[in-house]
UniProtKB/TrEMBL annotation:
It comes from the Bacteria. Coiled coil: none annotated. It is a multi-pass membrane protein. This is Na+/H+ antiporter NhaC family protein. Residues 19-216, 241-425 form the Na+/H+ antiporter NhaC-like C-terminal domain. It is found in: Cell membrane. Keywords: Antiport, Cell membrane, Membrane, Transmembrane, Transmembrane helix, Transport.
Length: 437
């Protein structure tokens, strides 16, 4: 037990250097090749893993086997394994839906309903609604990305733009939904009610939603002639099923399983494939997500090594030591959540890690705990929608078959969350009356 406590308290800049090494490799490759999409994410992190295994704490030296054990513990952490299962189920669903014509029918139905100029705002709004109901950005991205890809092919809208719009809508619910794990983590660590955090959080990000819709409505999508093809309402049912399950509040794995089952039964009934072909399509979907699964596992292991080497402790210490005023305290909480999310690529872990320290800071500087919970959730969710090695951009890019780096500039809502979150801190708004304890 003493050793575990010592591990948690250990702080060292050395523990942050694996992340710095990745950024150097990534930026250098992009600068040399003049394209930031040329560096494969998995290859980059394998270099980082090799570097991480060469490190040691000051005055302490572990064997390679012991370091690999730490790496394996992080890569096999329950959240990582759950993410991997979601990845492969998402691939299977997309593959089956595509094979039975569900994607094409859903795209054509959407194009027949949405005017051309309203496609981008429409996709964003739908993403916001589904993610708010489902409470998870991953499930929303899984459901909408294939449809967005089809719309891009039909309309000529740039693929990174429309898929980035999906990611933005997904992060809306990830941040605000009552059933989102980030919302639950933020409210529990600060001891506030869900509805109170929602009111504070909602007022901060509402301008970001409005400005996002205006920007999307103003983006020219060319003079592409949209030819709306035929669609079958029956073939749309796999997507309808996962949306209904999401609205009911089922676990994302159950949602995807229902979607796969619905697509499989309908595909067999309509003669789109036989049982043997169905198994092949499911396996094909698994294969599409193998790279993403490996990336998630490797990142999880590297993060565990970074924790052991003191990187996360170093971050916490440096940010909190610079807090001098109430406004600075709020900025410190935002920086804490953001930096830990960048280091761990997991906004829930970011909130859980930063939450107790943020509570201490808010009490010392008399910050409304509803505001603290909102700041934690807004900034961690915003950066989660922008990091190219985070699960959200990885799964969206995997389904769209593009680099996650291409999505970063088009996650417009995530960027605006940071902008309006920062303005909220600078201007000290919204102002609510403090609740009596």
């Amino acid at each position: 037990m003493k050793k575990q406590h010592k591990d948690e308290e250990y702080k060292s800049f050395l523990g942050l250097t694996p992340l710095i090494v990745f950024l150097v490799i990534f930026m250098s490759t992009g600068a040399i090749t003049k394209s930031f999409t040329n560096m494969p994410i998995l290859v980059g992190f394998m270099f980082v893993l090799a570097y991480s295994l060469c490190l040691n704490r000051k005055g302490e030296k572990l064997s390679l086997d012991e370091k690999i054990e730490i790496f394996s513990r992080g890569g096999g952490e329950s959240t990582i394994i759950l993410m991997v299962v979601i990845f492969i189920l998402a691939g299977a669903f997309y593959s089956v839906a595509n094979a039975m014509g569900s994607v094409e029918s859903t795209v054509n139905l959407g194009l027949s309903i949405l005017p051309t100029k309203a496609i981008l705002p429409g996709v964003f709004i739908i993403g916001c609604i589904i993610s708010f109901a489902m409470g998870t950005s991953m499930g929303t991205i899984t459901a909408l990305t294939p449809i967005a890809v089809g719309m891009s092919q039909q309309t000529g809208i740039a693929l990174p733009l429309i898929v980035g719009t999906v990611v933005g809508g997904a992060m809306f619910g990830d941040n605000l939904s009552f059933v989102s794990d980030t919302t639950i983590a933020a409210t529990r660590t600060q001891g506030v009610e869900l509805k109170d955090k929602f009111k504070m959080n909602g007022l901060i990000v509402l301008p970001a939603v409005i400005v996002t819709l205006i920007i999307l409505a103003c983006i020219p999508i060319g003079n592409a002639s949209i030819k709306v093809g035929a669609y079958s309402l029956l073939k749309v049912l796999p997507y309808v099923s996962i949306i209904i399950c999401a609205l009911i509040g089922f676990n994302v794995m159950v949602v995807l399983a229902v979607g796969i089952l619905t697509g499989s039964v309908l595909g067999l009934a309509l003669g789109s494939f036989n049982v043997v072909q169905l198994f092949g399509f499911i396996q094909r979907g698994f294969g599409w997500m193998q790279d993403l699964s490996l990336i998630a596992i490797v990142i999880g292991g590297i993060i565990e090594l970074m924790k052991y080497y003191g990187g996360i402790g170093f971050l916490l210490d440096k940010v909190t030591s610079r807090v001098k005023s109430k406004k600075g305290a709020e900025a410190g909480i935002a920086a804490l959540a953001s930096l830990i999310d960048l280091a761990t690529a997991n906004n829930t872990i970011s909130i859980v890690t930063a939450g107790p320290l943020a509570k201490d800071i808010s009490e010392e500087y008399d910050i409304d705990p509803r505001r603290t919970a909102s700041i934690l959730d807004i900034f961690s969710s915003a950066f989660q929608g922008l990091v190219p090695y985070g699960g959200q951009l990885l799964v969206a890019a995997g389904l769209a078959k593009i680099s996650p780096v291409q999505l970063m500039p088009y996650s417009i809502y995530s960027i605006l969350m940071i902008v309006f979150g920062a303005l909220s801190i600078i201007l000290g708004i919204p102002r609510f009356k403090r609740q009596s304890n």
